[in-house]
Description:
Number of strands: 16
Structural class: alpha/beta
Order of helices and strands: EEEEHEEHEHEHEHEEHEHEHEHEEHHH
Radius of gyration: 21 Å
Strand order of the largest sheet: 6-5-4-7-8-9-10
Amino acid sequence: MGAAVLPPGLVREADGTTRPLRVLHVTECFGAGVGRAVRLRAQALPGAEHHLLWTGEETPVASQWASAVMLPQSSLSRIRATRLRTRRLSPDIVHAHSSWAGVYTRARRLGQPVVYEPHCFKFDDPSLRPSVSAALRLAERLLMARTAAIGVLSPHEHAVVGAMSPRLPVVEVPNVPTVPPGPERTSPRPDGISRLAMVGRIAPQKDPRFYADAVGALRESGVAIEAVWIGDGEGALRRLLAEAGIRVTGWLGPSEVERLLRGAVYVHSARYEGFPLSLLDAAACRAPIVARRIAAVEHTGLLMSDTPSGAAALVTALLGSDDALADARERGAGLLRAYSPQHLTDALVQLYSEALSA
């Protein structure tokens, strides 16, 4: 049945007729990047019937889903609720988004193929003790025995899964930007760039200290530029940013995020990632990108540095040269060509086909 999934999100039956593919998306963190990624995947297959079983800090828009049911409070009750919802819907695919949803959907066999997208492996966190990282890696490996196919965000994650479970079907499922690409002809020149920006939850994973140190290095070298962090999060880390003279905007709507990214240099400071939507949004806004060198972005060809001072030096070079700015923007344009809506649709068709075949 695997090859019978069609790009609009349909399934071809044995008699040649078609019907909507029924997908149950499960996530315990509907909000921020994961929430947007789940919505983007549903939008990429508009012909399918997308149901949502969720909890998180955002409330889904009911009109965007065939059904949206909230998960209960405890982990055991969520495992039971996932099993019950699967029985009632009888979906073709159960699509688990993020690690805890991967537990709820695979702790017990559901009787339907489970597709798993971690959206980021926690064991990639370099701040974890080796014993904790090893335990998390073992848990993921054991749960892969109940996985029909896995969607990953980068060649790094592809290699990680291949090492843990060589026979499991793995498909790279690209994120896509959530803002429309900006026209090249209106892009500001170096003297039109007015700010540095970083987008994301203020949390250890995004490493606000790295960003604050990069801003500090720029200012020590005499570069006067506004620095903003677009997002919100932990109080102590938010205070760290404020004390470094960085404006924290809180969570903003898409149009306001787009306004701040246009005319900015985007500096991504996270210590580990799956693959951040914010990089793609920055590229779509024609913001030159300087990324921290981590495994998730090594394949992108973006400007990268291991250190805050190195990131600051790259920003300084961008602000002083039309050629350097044009090169950085072309790197971002290349990223958008690789992470396009069509590539997302094609990857989901392949992922679901692999799962149905398995």
